[in-house]
Amino acid sequence: MSYEDLALHTDKYQINMMYAHWKNETHNNIRVFEAFFRKNPFKSGYAVFAGLERIITYIERLRFSEEDINYLKEQEENYEEGFFEELRNFKFSGELYAVKEGTVVFQNEPLIRIKARVFEAQLIETALLNFMNYQTLIASKASRIRQAAPKDVLMEFGTRRAQEADAAIWGARAAYIAGFDATSNMRAGKLFGIPTKGTHAHSWVQDHDTEEESFERFANALPDQSVFLVDTYDTLKSGVPNAIKVGLKMKEQGKSLKGIRLDSGDLAYLSIQARKMLDEAGLKDVVIVASNDLDDDVIVDLKRQGAEITSWGIGTQLITAADQPALGGVYKVVAKYNGKEFEPTIKISGNVEKITTPGYKTVYRILNKEGKAEADYIAMVDEKVPTDELKLFDPVHTYKNKVVKDIEAVELQQPIFVDGKRVYELPSLEEIKSYHQEQLSLFWPEHLRRLNPQEYYIDLSERVWQTKMDLLEKHTK
Ligand SMILES: Nc1ncnc2c1ncn2[C@@H]1O[C@H](COP(=O)(O)OP(=O)(O)OP(=O)(O)O)[C@@H](O)[C@H]1O
Ligand SMILES: O=P(O)(O)OC[C@H]1O[C@H](OP(=O)(O)OP(=O)(O)O)[C@H](O)[C@@H]1O
Ligand SMILES: O=C(O)c1cccnc1
Ligand SMILES: [Mg+2]
User: Fold this and answer.
1) What ipTM, to 2 d.p.?
2) C-alpha of residue 245 to centroid of ligand 2, in Å
């Protein structure tokens, strides 16, 4: 089985439902599903959408091999041959709309919409959520780290701690989209064109008789990448003085020491002292890099303490999203085609937050005259959004409302597949990264701040709201 052969990268219940639909001859029924998450991660006011590129390539390549089919045969003797024939001919033939990677997104708004034969829509749920949940989570975490250090260099160092190889590379990509500058993972660099950066480890220092010799030899080999790790023995008594000695020698030779890296101890104190020592030696351009279990909270605190660090290597906390290891994105059916029209469908739950919003819908970002985002607005696909005057109301406390005038309604979901054909051209990673920056500029800082952000409104059109109320009433009578 080749690595990218992902047809069976799905939960068994999807295959069971596919079979049961086929057996009941309902497998060609058209359904509309939506993917969304219910709570912004990390107590942030927003998330950064990522994962679409992987979803697109997954769907384009989605075929069942004979090996896959043989495996399924072994698993369940009730499966009939006609089902396997159906799988042999399988390819995605539906419609998929999604927000672009790098979009600033919010809880409870539809991010991906699939209209397809239920046979197809069920199969892809698991993989689609797998990609969206992880990559959106890491991009959102990276965005918090970027906020903690708005002007500094951010390097993703997580591979050794990542939950396996896919997480390392797709996480590196997600971090880059949301504002990181580089990754240490060379494969992510090669695959996605992310700039790569690296220093050296303690082992390099330990491999030489003296620390000074290790720095000197490293500088001779790689003068343009000379960042010396100074904490192997004693940062201020040995590491920094040795780095200065070698840095001055390099200067005489017309080369320049790029930086030093601190990887233990009190990073505030050590960086302040090291900065003084470097400056006094005339090495003002030498950058201080820090690493060691860093996180956005730690970075904010180090800055408060006056740390002289302008470059950060961040591994474990970012790549494992340690403070929230999963984004709870879900995939829910919202409409059924009855041969004539799409009938909205609802999932009721005792937990009010889990009640779905029914209907074949899309989502708009409502921009005011100044180009700032006022709210996101969920409407049925065939609704027109009035741009001269639009009434927005809180879907729970409907008496809370406001009228916005002369707005622009930007549809966030783009057509990606139509009738099974890709109609979306994949943007370059640089385009995604700069689109993300534009996205951030649409919002007032109140919604973006790391601590206790002001909630951004996700509103429903009157028609969507009424549809939800009608179905709620119908099913709870
Ligand atoms: N001045 C500081 N204020 C707040 N947090 C800091 C400060 N300096 C370092 N830290 C953070 O505190 C934690 C210290 O972790 P730990 O005690 O494991 O490291 P260490 O003993 O310094 O180094 P190591 O065990 O890697 O040799 C790290 O997450 C580090 O980033
Ligand atoms: O701390 P992270 O954010 O995950 O960043 C990556 C870490 O990986 C490296 O060393 P490693 O942790 O492997 O060894 P060390 O703890 O002995 O430095 C590096 O020195 C960082 O400390
Ligand atoms: O380049 C580095 O310093 C680096 C890379 C990965 C993990 N730790 C450190
Ligand atoms: Mg460490």
Assistant:
1) 0.96
2) 26
With residue 144 as reference, give the H or E element that holds it: helix 118-148
Distance 231 CA to ligand 4 centre (A): 12
**Intervals of CATH 3.20.20.70 along the chain:** 199-307
Buried b (16+ CB within 10 A) or exposed e, 321-342: beeeeebebbbbbbbbbeeeeb
Q: CB of 227 closer than 6 A to ligand 2?
A: no
Q: Is any ligand 3 atom within 6 A of the Cβ of residue 157? A: yes
**Residue having the nearest C-alpha atom to atom 6 of ligand 3:** 157
| CATH class belonging to 199-307 | alpha beta
Residue 264 Cα: closest atom of ligand 2: 18
Give pLDDT tens digits for 357-415: 999 999 999 999 999 999 999 999 999 999 999 999 999 999 999 999 999 999 999 99
Residue list, ligand 1 pocket, CB within 6 Å:
264-268, 292-294, 298, 301-302, 305
Q: Please indicate, yes or no, whether the overall pTM of this predicted structure exceeds 0.90.
A: yes
CATH 3.20.140.10 domain range(s) in the chain: 12-139+325-476
Here the tokens at position 7 are 């047809």
Integer angstrom CA distances of residue 415 from 86, 105, 114: 26, 17, 10
CA of 149 to the centre of ligand 3 (A): 19
Homologous superfamily of 12-139+325-476 in CATH? nicotinate phosphoribosyltransferase (3.20.140.10)
Give the tens place of pLDDT for each residue, 8-33: 999 999 999 999 999 999 999 999 99
Which residue is closest in CA terms to ligand 3's atom 3? 199
Mean pLDDT of 405-427: 98
CA 132 to chain centre: 7
